[in-house]
Specification:
Length: about 475
Protein backbone atom coordinates (compact mmCIF):
# COMPACT_ATOMS: atom_id res chain seq x y z
CA UNK A 1 0.00 0.00 0.00
CA UNK A 2 1.20 3.50 -0.80
CA UNK A 3 1.69 5.16 2.59
CA UNK A 4 1.65 8.61 0.96
CA UNK A 5 -2.13 8.23 0.77
CA UNK A 6 -2.34 7.83 4.56
CA UNK A 7 -2.04 10.18 7.52
CA UNK A 8 0.21 8.75 10.19
CA UNK A 9 -1.30 9.08 13.68
CA UNK A 10 1.31 7.09 15.61
CA UNK A 11 3.76 4.19 15.32
CA UNK A 12 0.92 1.74 14.61
CA UNK A 13 -1.98 3.92 13.53
CA UNK A 14 -2.80 5.35 10.08
CA UNK A 15 -5.81 7.33 8.90
CA UNK A 16 -7.62 8.14 5.68
CA UNK A 17 -9.80 11.21 6.11
CA UNK A 18 -13.38 11.10 4.80
CA UNK A 19 -13.77 12.28 1.22
CA UNK A 20 -16.46 11.83 -1.39
CA UNK A 21 -19.10 9.37 -0.21
CA UNK A 22 -17.20 8.29 2.91
CA UNK A 23 -19.26 8.74 6.09
CA UNK A 24 -16.34 8.08 8.45
CA UNK A 25 -12.55 7.84 8.21
CA UNK A 26 -10.54 4.67 7.70
CA UNK A 27 -8.19 3.71 10.54
CA UNK A 28 -5.47 1.10 9.99
CA UNK A 29 -3.56 -0.37 12.94
CA UNK A 30 -0.19 -1.65 11.73
CA UNK A 31 3.50 -0.87 11.58
CA UNK A 32 4.85 0.92 8.54
CA UNK A 33 6.30 -2.35 7.24
CA UNK A 34 2.97 -4.16 7.53
CA UNK A 35 1.09 -1.29 5.87
CA UNK A 36 3.55 -1.19 2.97
CA UNK A 37 3.01 -4.93 2.45
CA UNK A 38 -0.79 -4.58 2.35
CA UNK A 39 -2.40 -4.75 -1.08
CA UNK A 40 -3.88 -1.50 -2.43
CA UNK A 41 -7.15 -3.44 -2.55
CA UNK A 42 -7.23 -3.29 1.27
CA UNK A 43 -7.28 0.50 1.12
CA UNK A 44 -10.01 0.47 -1.53
CA UNK A 45 -12.17 -2.00 0.38
CA UNK A 46 -11.80 -0.15 3.70
CA UNK A 47 -12.86 3.09 2.00
CA UNK A 48 -15.88 1.35 0.48
CA UNK A 49 -16.91 0.12 3.94
CA UNK A 50 -16.66 3.71 5.19
CA UNK A 51 -19.33 4.66 2.63
CA UNK A 52 -21.99 2.31 4.02
CA UNK A 53 -25.05 3.84 5.74
CA UNK A 54 -25.15 4.06 9.51
CA UNK A 55 -21.48 3.23 10.06
CA UNK A 56 -20.17 4.54 13.39
CA UNK A 57 -16.83 6.13 14.21
CA UNK A 58 -14.56 4.55 11.55
CA UNK A 59 -13.85 1.69 9.16
CA UNK A 60 -11.05 -0.24 10.85
CA UNK A 61 -8.31 -2.54 9.53
CA UNK A 62 -6.38 -4.83 11.86
CA UNK A 63 -2.60 -5.50 11.55
CA UNK A 64 -3.22 -8.73 9.60
CA UNK A 65 -5.39 -6.95 7.03
CA UNK A 66 -5.43 -8.29 3.49
CA UNK A 67 -7.76 -8.42 0.52
CA UNK A 68 -11.05 -10.23 1.11
CA UNK A 69 -14.58 -10.49 -0.26
CA UNK A 70 -16.41 -7.22 0.39
CA UNK A 71 -14.69 -6.17 3.62
CA UNK A 72 -10.94 -6.61 3.83
CA UNK A 73 -10.02 -9.58 5.98
CA UNK A 74 -9.11 -7.94 9.25
CA UNK A 75 -11.91 -5.41 8.76
CA UNK A 76 -14.06 -4.13 11.64
CA UNK A 77 -17.09 -1.86 11.38
CA UNK A 78 -20.04 -1.07 13.64
CA UNK A 79 -23.50 0.04 12.51
CA UNK A 80 -26.38 1.70 14.32
CA UNK A 81 -29.82 0.39 13.33
CA UNK A 82 -31.44 3.59 14.56
CA UNK A 83 -29.38 5.59 12.07
CA UNK A 84 -30.17 3.46 9.04
CA UNK A 85 -27.31 1.06 9.61
CA UNK A 86 -26.90 -2.09 7.55
CA UNK A 87 -25.80 -5.67 7.94
CA UNK A 88 -23.47 -6.98 5.24
CA UNK A 89 -22.94 -10.62 4.36
CA UNK A 90 -19.65 -9.51 2.82
CA UNK A 91 -18.74 -7.97 6.17
CA UNK A 92 -19.16 -11.31 7.93
CA UNK A 93 -17.73 -13.64 5.32
CA UNK A 94 -18.49 -17.09 3.99
CA UNK A 95 -16.97 -19.12 6.84
CA UNK A 96 -19.31 -17.72 9.47
CA UNK A 97 -17.85 -17.94 12.98
CA UNK A 98 -14.61 -19.50 11.85
CA UNK A 99 -12.77 -19.42 15.13
CA UNK A 100 -10.16 -20.78 17.47
CA UNK A 101 -10.37 -22.62 20.78
CA UNK A 102 -7.52 -23.77 22.98
CA UNK A 103 -7.48 -26.58 25.53
CA UNK A 104 -5.17 -27.19 28.44
CA UNK A 105 -3.74 -30.70 28.74
CA UNK A 106 -1.87 -30.74 32.06
CA UNK A 107 1.05 -32.19 30.08
CA UNK A 108 4.57 -31.09 29.26
CA UNK A 109 6.91 -31.69 26.34
CA UNK A 110 8.43 -34.79 27.92
CA UNK A 111 4.98 -36.36 28.09
CA UNK A 112 4.29 -35.83 24.39
CA UNK A 113 7.55 -36.33 22.51
CA UNK A 114 7.91 -40.08 23.22
CA UNK A 115 4.46 -40.65 21.67
CA UNK A 116 4.49 -37.75 19.21
CA UNK A 117 4.06 -39.91 16.10
CA UNK A 118 1.43 -42.14 17.72
CA UNK A 119 -0.52 -39.10 18.90
CA UNK A 120 -0.33 -37.41 15.48
CA UNK A 121 -1.57 -40.57 13.74
CA UNK A 122 -4.38 -41.03 16.27
CA UNK A 123 -5.62 -37.44 15.95
CA UNK A 124 -5.50 -37.59 12.17
CA UNK A 125 -7.33 -40.91 12.15
CA UNK A 126 -10.05 -39.87 14.60
CA UNK A 127 -10.89 -36.32 13.44
CA UNK A 128 -12.06 -35.99 9.82
CA UNK A 129 -10.24 -33.23 7.96
CA UNK A 130 -10.05 -31.85 4.45
CA UNK A 131 -12.30 -30.85 1.59
CA UNK A 132 -15.60 -32.76 1.66
CA UNK A 133 -14.71 -34.56 4.90
CA UNK A 134 -17.60 -36.33 6.63
CA UNK A 135 -18.08 -37.13 10.28
CA UNK A 136 -19.78 -40.01 12.08
CA UNK A 137 -22.72 -37.80 13.12
CA UNK A 138 -25.75 -37.65 10.85
CA UNK A 139 -28.30 -34.93 11.47
CA UNK A 140 -31.95 -35.51 10.67
CA UNK A 141 -34.31 -32.56 10.34
CA UNK A 142 -35.02 -32.32 14.07
CA UNK A 143 -31.39 -32.61 15.14
CA UNK A 144 -30.35 -30.05 12.52
CA UNK A 145 -32.86 -27.55 13.91
CA UNK A 146 -31.83 -28.18 17.50
CA UNK A 147 -28.12 -27.83 16.66
CA UNK A 148 -28.66 -24.54 14.81
CA UNK A 149 -30.54 -23.17 17.82
CA UNK A 150 -28.41 -24.68 20.59
CA UNK A 151 -24.80 -24.45 19.38
CA UNK A 152 -22.18 -25.84 21.77
CA UNK A 153 -24.86 -26.11 24.45
CA UNK A 154 -26.69 -28.61 22.23
CA UNK A 155 -23.44 -30.55 21.73
CA UNK A 156 -22.80 -30.74 25.48
CA UNK A 157 -26.36 -31.88 26.12
CA UNK A 158 -25.71 -34.76 23.70
CA UNK A 159 -22.54 -35.86 25.49
CA UNK A 160 -19.88 -34.02 23.50
CA UNK A 161 -18.18 -32.15 26.31
CA UNK A 162 -19.05 -30.87 29.76
CA UNK A 163 -21.14 -27.95 31.08
CA UNK A 164 -17.91 -26.32 32.32
CA UNK A 165 -16.87 -25.87 28.69
CA UNK A 166 -19.75 -23.46 28.08
CA UNK A 167 -18.39 -20.91 30.56
CA UNK A 168 -15.27 -20.51 28.39
CA UNK A 169 -17.05 -19.87 25.06
CA UNK A 170 -18.31 -16.56 23.71
CA UNK A 171 -22.08 -16.26 24.26
CA UNK A 172 -21.71 -19.21 26.69
CA UNK A 173 -21.74 -21.52 23.68
CA UNK A 174 -25.16 -20.52 22.32
CA UNK A 175 -25.88 -17.55 20.06
CA UNK A 176 -29.41 -16.44 20.92
CA UNK A 177 -32.07 -15.44 18.38
CA UNK A 178 -30.88 -17.90 15.74
CA UNK A 179 -33.54 -18.64 13.13
CA UNK A 180 -33.04 -21.98 11.34
CA UNK A 181 -36.15 -21.27 9.23
CA UNK A 182 -34.10 -18.62 7.40
CA UNK A 183 -31.37 -21.12 6.53
CA UNK A 184 -31.88 -22.65 3.08
CA UNK A 185 -32.47 -26.34 2.52
CA UNK A 186 -29.25 -26.43 0.47
CA UNK A 187 -27.23 -25.02 3.38
CA UNK A 188 -28.71 -27.61 5.75
CA UNK A 189 -28.08 -30.39 3.25
CA UNK A 190 -24.40 -29.47 3.05
CA UNK A 191 -24.11 -29.82 6.82
CA UNK A 192 -25.86 -33.16 7.28
CA UNK A 193 -22.64 -35.11 7.77
CA UNK A 194 -20.05 -32.40 8.41
CA UNK A 195 -20.37 -32.01 12.19
CA UNK A 196 -17.13 -32.79 13.99
CA UNK A 197 -14.95 -32.13 10.92
CA UNK A 198 -12.09 -29.68 10.41
CA UNK A 199 -12.74 -28.75 6.81
CA UNK A 200 -10.02 -27.50 4.49
CA UNK A 201 -7.95 -24.39 3.75
CA UNK A 202 -6.26 -22.81 6.75
CA UNK A 203 -8.19 -24.89 9.28
CA UNK A 204 -6.12 -27.05 11.58
CA UNK A 205 -5.72 -28.87 14.87
CA UNK A 206 -2.40 -28.37 16.60
CA UNK A 207 -0.65 -29.74 19.67
CA UNK A 208 1.47 -26.84 20.88
CA UNK A 209 4.06 -26.04 23.53
CA UNK A 210 4.09 -22.77 25.48
CA UNK A 211 7.61 -21.57 24.71
CA UNK A 212 7.51 -18.01 25.99
CA UNK A 213 5.50 -16.03 28.54
CA UNK A 214 5.33 -12.24 28.15
CA UNK A 215 2.82 -11.32 30.89
CA UNK A 216 3.32 -13.75 33.79
CA UNK A 217 0.41 -12.49 35.90
CA UNK A 218 -2.11 -12.77 33.07
CA UNK A 219 -0.65 -16.09 31.95
CA UNK A 220 -1.12 -17.43 35.47
CA UNK A 221 -4.76 -16.33 35.41
CA UNK A 222 -5.18 -18.13 32.09
CA UNK A 223 -3.48 -21.23 33.52
CA UNK A 224 -0.48 -21.03 31.18
CA UNK A 225 3.19 -21.44 31.99
CA UNK A 226 6.30 -22.14 29.97
CA UNK A 227 6.57 -25.79 28.94
CA UNK A 228 2.82 -26.47 29.07
CA UNK A 229 1.19 -28.37 26.23
CA UNK A 230 -2.06 -27.05 24.79
CA UNK A 231 -4.28 -28.11 21.90
CA UNK A 232 -5.71 -25.53 19.53
CA UNK A 233 -8.59 -26.10 17.11
CA UNK A 234 -9.26 -23.74 14.21
CA UNK A 235 -12.42 -24.31 12.13
CA UNK A 236 -15.88 -22.89 11.46
CA UNK A 237 -19.37 -23.54 10.16
CA UNK A 238 -18.25 -25.62 7.16
CA UNK A 239 -20.59 -25.91 4.15
CA UNK A 240 -23.59 -24.49 5.96
CA UNK A 241 -21.95 -21.15 6.67
CA UNK A 242 -20.58 -20.90 3.15
CA UNK A 243 -23.98 -21.54 1.64
CA UNK A 244 -25.63 -18.94 3.90
CA UNK A 245 -23.11 -16.38 2.69
CA UNK A 246 -23.74 -17.33 -0.93
CA UNK A 247 -27.53 -17.24 -0.54
CA UNK A 248 -27.77 -13.90 1.21
CA UNK A 249 -25.16 -12.09 -0.86
CA UNK A 250 -27.28 -12.84 -3.91
CA UNK A 251 -30.50 -11.73 -2.20
CA UNK A 252 -28.90 -8.55 -0.87
CA UNK A 253 -27.58 -7.57 -4.30
CA UNK A 254 -31.00 -8.10 -5.85
CA UNK A 255 -32.78 -6.16 -3.09
CA UNK A 256 -30.36 -3.22 -2.91
CA UNK A 257 -32.31 -0.89 -5.29
CA UNK A 258 -35.55 -1.48 -3.39
CA UNK A 259 -33.77 -0.47 -0.17
CA UNK A 260 -32.34 2.64 -1.78
CA UNK A 261 -28.78 1.33 -1.49
CA UNK A 262 -26.15 2.30 -4.01
CA UNK A 263 -23.31 -0.13 -3.40
CA UNK A 264 -19.72 1.02 -3.97
CA UNK A 265 -18.88 -2.65 -4.59
CA UNK A 266 -21.22 -5.52 -5.42
CA UNK A 267 -19.33 -7.65 -2.90
CA UNK A 268 -20.45 -5.26 -0.15
CA UNK A 269 -24.04 -6.42 -0.60
CA UNK A 270 -26.02 -5.47 2.49
CA UNK A 271 -29.51 -4.80 3.80
CA UNK A 272 -30.87 -2.32 6.35
CA UNK A 273 -30.74 -3.84 9.82
CA UNK A 274 -34.42 -3.08 10.34
CA UNK A 275 -35.51 -4.55 7.00
CA UNK A 276 -37.09 -7.99 6.66
CA UNK A 277 -34.10 -9.23 4.67
CA UNK A 278 -31.65 -7.84 7.23
CA UNK A 279 -33.46 -9.62 10.05
CA UNK A 280 -33.59 -12.85 8.07
CA UNK A 281 -29.84 -12.73 7.46
CA UNK A 282 -29.12 -12.06 11.13
CA UNK A 283 -31.25 -15.07 12.09
CA UNK A 284 -29.49 -17.32 9.57
CA UNK A 285 -26.03 -16.01 10.46
CA UNK A 286 -26.65 -16.64 14.16
CA UNK A 287 -27.65 -20.20 13.29
CA UNK A 288 -24.33 -20.55 11.45
CA UNK A 289 -22.48 -19.26 14.53
CA UNK A 290 -24.17 -22.00 16.54
CA UNK A 291 -23.14 -24.53 13.90
CA UNK A 292 -19.51 -23.47 14.26
CA UNK A 293 -19.67 -23.54 18.06
CA UNK A 294 -21.20 -27.03 17.99
CA UNK A 295 -18.62 -28.18 15.47
CA UNK A 296 -15.66 -27.05 17.59
CA UNK A 297 -17.31 -28.57 20.65
CA UNK A 298 -17.65 -31.99 19.00
CA UNK A 299 -14.06 -31.86 17.78
CA UNK A 300 -13.00 -31.03 21.34
CA UNK A 301 -14.72 -34.21 22.52
CA UNK A 302 -12.94 -36.24 19.82
CA UNK A 303 -9.59 -34.75 20.82
CA UNK A 304 -10.19 -35.69 24.42
CA UNK A 305 -10.97 -39.26 23.39
CA UNK A 306 -7.65 -39.51 21.56
CA UNK A 307 -5.62 -38.12 24.45
CA UNK A 308 -7.40 -40.45 26.90
CA UNK A 309 -6.25 -43.38 24.77
CA UNK A 310 -2.68 -42.23 24.05
CA UNK A 311 -1.76 -40.23 27.20
CA UNK A 312 -4.26 -41.24 29.84
CA UNK A 313 -3.15 -38.70 32.45
CA UNK A 314 -4.08 -35.72 30.26
CA UNK A 315 -6.61 -33.31 31.81
CA UNK A 316 -8.22 -31.12 29.14
CA UNK A 317 -10.35 -28.21 30.34
CA UNK A 318 -11.13 -25.47 27.87
CA UNK A 319 -9.07 -22.27 28.06
CA UNK A 320 -11.31 -20.23 25.75
CA UNK A 321 -13.10 -20.19 22.39
CA UNK A 322 -13.27 -17.10 20.14
CA UNK A 323 -15.06 -16.50 16.85
CA UNK A 324 -14.03 -14.57 13.78
CA UNK A 325 -16.38 -13.64 10.93
CA UNK A 326 -19.42 -12.50 12.88
CA UNK A 327 -21.85 -9.62 13.34
CA UNK A 328 -22.89 -9.21 16.97
CA UNK A 329 -25.13 -6.75 18.79
CA UNK A 330 -23.00 -5.16 21.51
CA UNK A 331 -22.99 -2.10 23.73
CA UNK A 332 -20.19 0.38 23.10
CA UNK A 333 -19.54 3.91 24.25
CA UNK A 334 -19.39 6.48 21.46
CA UNK A 335 -18.75 10.15 22.33
CA UNK A 336 -19.62 9.38 25.94
CA UNK A 337 -22.94 7.73 25.06
CA UNK A 338 -23.59 4.01 25.50
CA UNK A 339 -25.09 2.73 22.24
CA UNK A 340 -26.23 -0.63 20.88
CA UNK A 341 -24.23 -1.39 17.74
CA UNK A 342 -24.00 -4.26 15.30
CA UNK A 343 -20.27 -4.93 15.14
CA UNK A 344 -18.98 -6.71 12.03
CA UNK A 345 -15.66 -8.50 12.50
CA UNK A 346 -14.33 -10.03 9.30
CA UNK A 347 -11.21 -11.98 10.14
CA UNK A 348 -11.00 -10.20 13.49
CA UNK A 349 -11.38 -11.25 17.11
CA UNK A 350 -13.46 -9.73 19.89
CA UNK A 351 -11.12 -8.49 22.63
CA UNK A 352 -13.05 -7.34 25.70
CA UNK A 353 -10.89 -5.68 28.32
CA UNK A 354 -10.53 -6.40 32.05
CA UNK A 355 -13.73 -6.23 34.03
CA UNK A 356 -16.12 -6.78 31.16
CA UNK A 357 -19.28 -8.46 32.50
CA UNK A 358 -19.51 -10.95 29.63
CA UNK A 359 -16.19 -12.56 30.55
CA UNK A 360 -16.14 -15.62 32.82
CA UNK A 361 -15.43 -14.60 36.39
CA UNK A 362 -12.07 -16.44 36.71
CA UNK A 363 -10.73 -14.53 33.68
CA UNK A 364 -12.49 -11.19 34.13
CA UNK A 365 -9.73 -9.31 35.91
CA UNK A 366 -7.19 -10.21 33.22
CA UNK A 367 -9.33 -9.45 30.17
CA UNK A 368 -10.53 -11.75 27.41
CA UNK A 369 -8.14 -14.33 26.00
CA UNK A 370 -7.45 -13.46 22.35
CA UNK A 371 -6.25 -16.53 20.48
CA UNK A 372 -4.11 -15.71 17.45
CA UNK A 373 -3.46 -18.65 15.13
CA UNK A 374 -0.21 -18.77 13.24
CA UNK A 375 0.31 -20.36 9.85
CA UNK A 376 1.31 -24.00 9.64
CA UNK A 377 4.68 -24.49 11.32
CA UNK A 378 4.88 -21.03 12.85
CA UNK A 379 4.05 -19.77 16.31
CA UNK A 380 0.58 -18.97 17.60
CA UNK A 381 -0.10 -16.51 20.40
CA UNK A 382 -2.38 -15.91 23.34
CA UNK A 383 -3.14 -12.23 23.93
CA UNK A 384 -5.43 -10.42 26.37
CA UNK A 385 -8.02 -7.78 25.60
CA UNK A 386 -7.34 -4.27 26.88
CA UNK A 387 -9.42 -1.38 28.16
CA UNK A 388 -7.97 0.77 25.38
CA UNK A 389 -9.28 -1.52 22.65
CA UNK A 390 -12.86 -0.40 23.36
CA UNK A 391 -12.07 3.13 22.19
CA UNK A 392 -9.63 2.02 19.50
CA UNK A 393 -11.76 -0.45 17.53
CA UNK A 394 -14.87 -1.55 19.45
CA UNK A 395 -12.88 -4.09 21.49
CA UNK A 396 -11.40 -5.86 18.48
CA UNK A 397 -8.03 -7.33 17.60
CA UNK A 398 -6.37 -9.27 14.79
CA UNK A 399 -7.10 -12.98 14.30
CA UNK A 400 -4.01 -14.48 12.66
CA UNK A 401 -1.01 -13.86 10.46
CA UNK A 402 -2.90 -12.95 7.30
CA UNK A 403 -1.99 -14.23 3.87
CA UNK A 404 0.97 -12.70 2.06
CA UNK A 405 0.27 -14.49 -1.23
CA UNK A 406 -2.64 -16.30 -2.85
CA UNK A 407 -3.05 -20.05 -2.69
CA UNK A 408 -2.39 -20.23 -6.41
CA UNK A 409 0.88 -18.33 -5.98
CA UNK A 410 1.87 -20.57 -3.08
CA UNK A 411 1.55 -23.65 -5.32
CA UNK A 412 4.20 -22.22 -7.62
CA UNK A 413 6.63 -21.82 -4.70
CA UNK A 414 6.20 -25.03 -2.67
CA UNK A 415 5.29 -28.70 -2.91
CA UNK A 416 3.47 -30.48 -0.11
CA UNK A 417 6.17 -33.07 0.53
CA UNK A 418 8.82 -30.35 0.66
CA UNK A 419 6.90 -28.49 3.36
CA UNK A 420 6.26 -31.68 5.38
CA UNK A 421 9.96 -32.61 5.27
CA UNK A 422 11.11 -29.12 6.22
CA UNK A 423 8.80 -29.03 9.22
CA UNK A 424 9.74 -32.57 10.24
CA UNK A 425 13.36 -31.45 10.36
CA UNK A 426 12.24 -28.88 12.92
CA UNK A 427 10.46 -31.51 15.02
CA UNK A 428 6.94 -30.70 13.77
CA UNK A 429 4.77 -33.53 12.44
CA UNK A 430 2.20 -32.49 9.82
CA UNK A 431 -0.68 -34.77 8.87
CA UNK A 432 -3.00 -34.00 5.97
CA UNK A 433 -4.93 -35.84 3.29
CA UNK A 434 -3.98 -33.20 0.72
CA UNK A 435 -0.42 -32.51 -0.45
CA UNK A 436 -1.80 -29.60 -2.47
CA UNK A 437 -3.48 -28.18 0.63
CA UNK A 438 -0.18 -28.28 2.53
CA UNK A 439 1.55 -26.36 -0.26
CA UNK A 440 -1.22 -23.76 -0.34
CA UNK A 441 -0.84 -23.23 3.41
CA UNK A 442 2.98 -23.18 3.51
CA UNK A 443 4.31 -20.93 6.28
CA UNK A 444 5.93 -18.64 3.71
CA UNK A 445 2.54 -17.88 2.17
CA UNK A 446 1.62 -15.90 5.27
CA UNK A 447 2.81 -12.70 6.91
CA UNK A 448 5.12 -12.84 9.90
CA UNK A 449 2.69 -13.58 12.72
CA UNK A 450 5.14 -12.21 15.29
CA UNK A 451 5.15 -8.85 13.51
CA UNK A 452 1.34 -8.82 13.40
CA UNK A 453 1.06 -9.66 17.11
CA UNK A 454 3.68 -7.08 18.06
CA UNK A 455 1.71 -4.43 16.13
CA UNK A 456 -1.53 -5.37 17.89
CA UNK A 457 0.29 -5.14 21.23
CA UNK A 458 1.94 -1.80 20.44
CA UNK A 459 -1.31 -0.32 19.15
CA UNK A 460 -3.08 -1.32 22.38
CA UNK A 461 -5.60 -3.62 20.73
CA UNK A 462 -4.49 -6.56 22.90
CA UNK A 463 -1.57 -7.46 25.18
CA UNK A 464 0.85 -10.23 24.25
CA UNK A 465 0.68 -12.96 26.91
CA UNK A 466 2.26 -16.19 25.60
CA UNK A 467 3.79 -17.75 22.50
CA UNK A 468 2.91 -21.28 21.40
CA UNK A 469 5.05 -23.47 19.15
CA UNK A 470 3.51 -26.41 17.22
CA UNK A 471 4.62 -30.00 17.74
CA UNK A 472 1.82 -31.67 15.75
CA UNK A 473 -0.35 -30.12 13.05
CA UNK A 474 -3.39 -31.85 11.50
CA UNK A 475 -4.33 -29.87 8.41
CA UNK A 476 -7.68 -29.68 6.69
Amino acid sequence: MNINSLQRQGPCEWRIAPTGKMNVPVVIYATEALVRDMDEKVREQAINVACLPGIVRASYVMPDGHWGYGFPIGGVAAFDAAQGGVVSAGGVGFDVSCGVRSLHTGLHRDDVMPVQRELADALFGHIPAGMGSRGAIHLNQTRMHDMLVGGAKWAVEHGWGTPADLDRIEEHGQMLHAKPSFVSDMAKKRQLEEMGTLGSGNHYLEVQEVTEVHEPAIAETYGLKRGDIVVTIHCGSRGLGHQIGTDYLRMMVEAAPAHGLSLPDRELACAPLRSELGQQYLGAMRAAINCALANRQIITHLVRQVFARVIAKAQMPLLYDVSHNTCKLEQHRVDGELRELFVHRKGATRAFGPGHPELPEPLRAAGQPVLIGGSMGTSSYVLAGTQASEALAFSSACHGAGRAMSRHAALSHWHGRQVVDELAARGIIVKSASSRGIAEEAPGAYKDVAAVVDAADEAGLARKVARLQPLICVKG
